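To assess whether ligand presence alters the predicted conformation, the chain was also submitted together with iron/sulfur cluster. Input:
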Amino acid sequence: MAEDEKLLEIKNLKKYFPVKEGVFRRTVAHVKAVDDITFHIKKGETLGLVGESGCGKSTAGRTILRLLEATAGEIWFEGKNLVDLDKKELREMRKEMQIIFQDPYASLNPRMTVADIVGEPIDIHNLASSKKERNEKVADILDTVGLGPEYMKRYPHEFSGGQRQRIGVARALAVDPSLIIADEPVSALDVSIQAQVINLMQDLQKDFDLTYLFIAHDLSVVKHISDRVAVMYLGKLVEVADKKELFDDPKHPYTQSLLSAIPVADPTYETERIILEGDVPSPVDPPSGCRFHPRCPYAMDICSEVEPEFKDYGDEHFAACHLLEDE
Ligand code: SF4
């Protein structure tokens, strides 16, 4: 693959949060929310990033945008390592990278009109020479996401959940970015509305040449929209592959368990549900070796001692599991 096909390349990214205790607020431990992940996103594709809540996927998204500062690692975007950028350079780069949040209600300022919510990024990046031009742009973008100009003077509480997420999408789109990180954009919506928002995002991807990192806790949500899927467990990537390959031939036991939990529409198709024992362990003191070993139905002695290497098992199908090493 040519290097220039990669729009975003993450190398050994870590994000640790200090745990402070006592009167002097001394750091006694770290929450290893993102612990050494490496992956890339090709221009124009959608990478689905999936894992249970608390696995670090949203922290990874925010760290990539430098809404959180990385503890270590590199974030290469359009030839620049974002970690090295100063405030001014970062501000310019932010125009190219936008985020859509999970809860459209909490992420929209309730005291601002839709015109101001969608127009704010246009103002910040000086993309309009007058208020009139800015409002024309806003009306255009709202039309693109299926909302008429009559909505411009209204406030977020006057909209349904699906409409609010359309406003969130419009705001992200307002500065004509090349990458959008969608952090569980449909998790708070009814299932019927989820499909509408996902279809809208797919249409916009074609029309505006967008690249997506689409974060979700459910593989069934990312199945439709993703070209490739990355599976995260307790701060680590455990598998990354082309979507079809991942759904047809999941290599990691954790991915297999997530897939077995998806209800199947065809009742004649039999699938064995893999029930995982126990809860996700704490990222403050993650299990030794393979972090999945306390819950893995196939765990061997080596699994608690040696961390499996995240490697390519052919055609860019990456996984980290000792079971695969003899294949
Ligand atoms: Fe299970 Fe061991 Fe593979 Fe981890 S390395 S997923 S514990 S078999």
